[in-house]
Amino acid sequence: MNTEGFYICSCRDGYALNEDGLTCSVSCSGTFTDLLGSFQTPDWPGSYPIEDFTCVWEITIDISEASIMILFQEPYGVFGSEPCETDYVEVFYGVGSNTTSVAKHCGVSVPDRIVVDGNGATVVFRGSTHSQMNRPGVSVVYRA
């Protein structure tokens, strides 16, 4: 909404307004509790930002004997190659400070589905200024 002498800035999906009220920065983390859900890197399926940022998505299901299936959708692309040092997507068993890495990926090949036994999983995406090529990032669908 703009009126003479007054304006309100807003940011597109995957970004949040900075304290200055004028600029936006990447904001892509979240907590999910539904049995089925999805999330994406900023600007997916376009190119994710070439800047240093981290997205942390935590999935917690209120079922004691659960398993969570993580599916990566096309288009998929994360700058880099093994050992995925700068840009990567990593899946962890558990949430918070009690996690164990299950898989770490980069490149352009869509990873196979990942099943995490238990009622909690964390997906971390790391983007960096080291990216030399435009990549779409990731779109994830999870199901318990």
UniProtKB/TrEMBL annotation:
PROSITE patterns membership: CUB (PS01180)
Pfam families, alphabetized: cEGF, CUB
MF terms in GO: serine-type endopeptidase activity
Domain of life: Eukaryota
Any one GO CC term of the record: extracellular space
Segments forming domain CUB: 28-144
Stretches of the chain forming a coiled coil according to its record: none
InterPro entries: cEGF, CUB_dom, Sperma_CUB_dom_sf
Disulfide bond entries: 28-55
Keywords tagged on the record: Disulfide bond, EGF-like domain
Record-given protein name: Tolloid-like protein 1
